Amino acid sequence: MGPCGSKKKKNTEKEPKEKPVKKETEENVPEPRTFGDKLTKEEVKELSEKSGFTNGEVKKLYEYYKKISASQIDDNVIDEQEFEEALGLSGSKFAKRMFEVMDEDGNGEVDFEEFCNGLICFTSKGTMEDRIKFTFQVYDLDGNGEIDRDELLIMLKACLNEQFLLTLKDEDLENMVEQTFKEVDADNSGGIDFTEYSEYASKHPNIMKNLKIELPFLKDIEED
């Protein structure tokens, strides 16, 4: 699916319209799950089984998590600003989208369980299936189960600009999108569903490299 925003064009250029990301209504937004200063044995075991991290890795990861979650407000949850600053990508559209995907319950905060579940795919323990699912959700901005041309264009521009610092003309980006749809949209529906994306990503595993988190502590916590 090619690398993912590029140099901003003048106002005379027409920008693709961003779609609103689905949000939970205030009435049914769940409360974040919080933990004490130290995890209990039961919590460690549960989080390990759910995420794929070992017990030791969960404990180490929690220490880093507490630092990030206390960087703005010490409330044992990570908000969007804390997440972006931890990545060194404040104001990044790409980091914002990753935060939204990790925020599984849509309450605007990432608790430690969500943190573990989201980060596992960026480690050696993450499976190709984990990475494909996560990256598909990053591209599927409105959460309707398929990626349309505008969504792909928006995320390509964000990724190129924020991660690779590449400058491409809008025309070149649009050509990349059209070429991608020719290759991936097998049924010519105008949208790339998960099955089509998964088949393409499995054949071109290097596209997973376009969506990455550079967090040094991930290497520090991993056990053999």
TrEMBL record:
Domain EF-hand: 90-125, 127-162, 172-207
Segments of this protein annotated with the region Disordered: 1-51
Gene Ontology terms, MF aspect: calcium ion binding; kinase binding
Ranges of compositional bias, category Basic and acidic residues: 12-26, 34-49
Biased composition, class Basic residues, residue ranges: 1-11
InterPro entries: CNBL1-10, EF-hand-dom_pair, EF_Hand_1_Ca_BS, EF_hand_dom
GO biological process: calcium-mediated signaling
UniProt KW keywords: Calcium, Repeat
Protein's UniProt name: Calcineurin b
PANTHER family in UniProt: CALCINEURIN B, CALMODULIN
